[in-house]
Amino acid sequence: MTVVCTKAGEERETLEVLVADDEPLIRDSVAEILRTRGHRVETVGSAEEALSSARVRMPDVVIVDWRMPGGGGRVVEGLLADGAFQGRIFLLTGSITGDEEAVLRDGVERIGKPFSYLGLVARVEGREEG
């Protein structure tokens, strides 16, 4: 575990984060704000890339878009089925349907679109604000 000390004297764990979203603006902006907080972030644009990366890197946190190519649900189910994955999963979605309800279990958390970047960071870092 790496600890980052901020200018304000705050200490927090540096997290390995995977951001999976097919929209470059969302993917890159989420990654950038997490990097400015000291986290190590990888970005991908499809479900296939997300599963491949997560199985190799075993990130602490996966942020996945529900409607990206290949399906965010496929990523969530693949990670939950992998007994080695111990990280947190956040599902980015604009609405909840029956299919989304089914994956919002076992610790999978929903972040509704549109979302607050500060709120997203707080949840990723375990502060549950926003």
Top keywords for this entry?
Rossmann fold, two-stranded antiparallel sheet, 5 helices, 37% helix, 7 strands, 130 residues, 5-stranded parallel sheet, alpha/beta
Describe the structure.
Strand 5 (about 60-65), helix 3 (about 70-80) and strand 6 form a beta-alpha-beta unit. The chain has helices at about 25-35, 45-55, 70-80, 100-105, 115-125; strands spanning about 5, 10-15, 15-20, 40-45, 60-65, 90-95, 110. Helix 2 (about 45-55) packs parallel to helix 3. It is globular and about 35 Å long. The chain has about 130 residues and is α/β, with parallel strands linked by helices. The protein contains five helices and seven strands; from the N terminus they run βββαβαβαβαβα.
The CATH superfamily is identified as Response regulator
Give the count of helical stretches: 5
Bin the helical content.
25-40%
CATH topology: the name is Rossmann fold
Spatial order of the strands in the main sheet? 4-3-5-6-7
Largest sheet: 5 strands, parallel
End-to-end separation: 26 Å
Query: Mind telling me which CATH architecture this is?
Result: 3-Layer(aba) Sandwich
Q: What are the secondary-structure elements, in order, as H or E?
A: EEEHEHEHEHEH
Report the uncertain regions. Answer: none
Overall pLDDT confidence: 84
The helix/strand class is: alpha/beta
Gyration radius (Cα, Å) is 14 Å
Number of structural units classed as domains: 1
- According to CATH, what is the class? Alpha Beta
Shape: globular
Question: What is the number of beta strands?
Answer: 7
Strand content: 15-25%
